[in-house]
What does this fold into?
Amino acid sequence: MTAAATPSRQFAMVFDLNKCLGCQTCTIACKTQWTRGGGMAAMWWNIVNTIPGRGTPRDAFELGGGYRDGVPQAGELPGKRQWGEAWDFDYDKVFYDGNYGGNNYVKPREHDGAAPEWGPNWDEDMGAGEYPHSYFFYLPLVCMNCSKPACLEACPRDVIYRREEDGVVLVDEERCHGYRFCIEACPYKRIYFNEQRAIAQKCISCYPRLEKGVAPACVRQCPGRVRHVGFLDDVDSHIHKLVNDWKVALPLRPDFEVEPNVFYVPPTMPLAFDENGEFDDAASRMPLDELRLMFGPGVEHALAVIDAERQKVAAGGSSELMDILISRNWQDMLGPFPQDPGKLERPPPRNDATERRD
Amino acid sequence: MTDGSVTHILDAINQPVSFEELLSPVAAAWDATREVVISLTPTPLERQPSAYVQTVWRERPRGEVSEVKVRALCNDSSVVLRLDWAAGEPRRSINDVNVYADGCAVLFPANGEAAELDTMGSPEKPVAAWHWRAGDEQPFSVTATGIGSVKRIVEHPIKVGARWGEGRWRVALGSPLPTDTVGLARGGAVPVAFAVWCGAADDRGGLKSYSQQFHQLRLQ
It folds into this structure.
């Protein structure tokens, strides 16, 4: 309800879309860590969608929210079929009732038995374009910890706040009354509704891990070395260099005007072909208009810089930018959060049989 | 009477029936009570504390329930108010991300003194309310010291009985006497106000129909 206070430092992430495999290891790392409680079965605080695609929830970026010329924009609340429910699977019928084989396979079902109509990354790998110019890329999404968080400003109860020490945006679940203005207002639709508890819940940037110097689970477990973390004001960090110095890490959908603090290295895409079937260096597989919409007007400069630095290395030279993006030592990507969580003193493991409430 | 400017007197007649029976919204005891029709209006948009709500709800409906019929009963140890309002499309629970439940509330000045209703009280003059939301197992007892400050009281004795039929909700909200947050006891009187949330119109939080002013609840 009040404007977000400016934190002393801003935690930020950079996702290199040229390395994302779409494997959803980040998604499962998050799921395992945070969203196994009651009413959270269908929550994916971290999700990787295929772009072009309709997203999670369906048509996520078309549902309004954010700002235009500083004015809050109306947002729609998607229903749970639009988010995708936590489906049931007819394992018993297929595996234990003598139906195995033939045309019988394990089918997902909504809770009322209907066939699913949507789910996380539903349009996986469909992409767009005509052969040989078909194209797609993977877009990992978490809470953007925006500097102008529409969710925070929409909440009439001041339940959402930005941490002073790192700018991480959190929902005070104890005070949330489940009005869901925040979900409407978030233009990325990265806030979920826990129907069982009637509260809003979302990615918390693994803040309890950050406080112990441990990178978020999605970052640490990424096998593609996609995710860099750190503070924007640390001039020696990957984050600062990629965002501020090299200007190759860009905000997602800057037209939403929420000033996100997750930045993306845009996809360079495979080369296009000319009419003779030869590589066409001047053409782009993905229309530039689509890239500009996703990453703003800086995308052409970013792609040109990446291309130039690649060529420099291909010609035998060296490039600080390529060294950062390749990150031969994966722990370099973790910035001030390199702590191995396995080496921390931890409470005894949970007994899943009693802790799981779904 | 449905004139919003009229202060109504709501007399809670003492009936020798149990608290549980009073909480039945269709109990025979209600037939002998006098019905008071309270007119409701949408809460003022300019009072909403969020720029998002203020901007977006200029184009959206809110607070469309125009009246609530109220009756009151008591016995030697408890008081119950029954609210009755039209709900053609009942929302009986929050069963989807984009579904809001119907609800109602009875609100009192917490210390018996008149408090500002439009702001849900103030730090000096807090308000207390009994709040029922369809689908919840228990009603809430809440206090507030201004808009956006509503706080649920975890341990409270408020009980509810609710029934929907023939296009209307009938909800009986009650408390043992003396009431814990309101200072209401046998033979006493307190200002009382009312609010209704229409789930089908996405009412929630401060977006609701309310009675604009306090009326008077008297206990026999």
In short: The first helix of chain A runs from residue 25 to 34. Residues 85-118 of chain A form one domain. Chain A has two domains: 11-84+119-343, 85-118. The first strand of chain A starts at residue 11 and ends at 16.
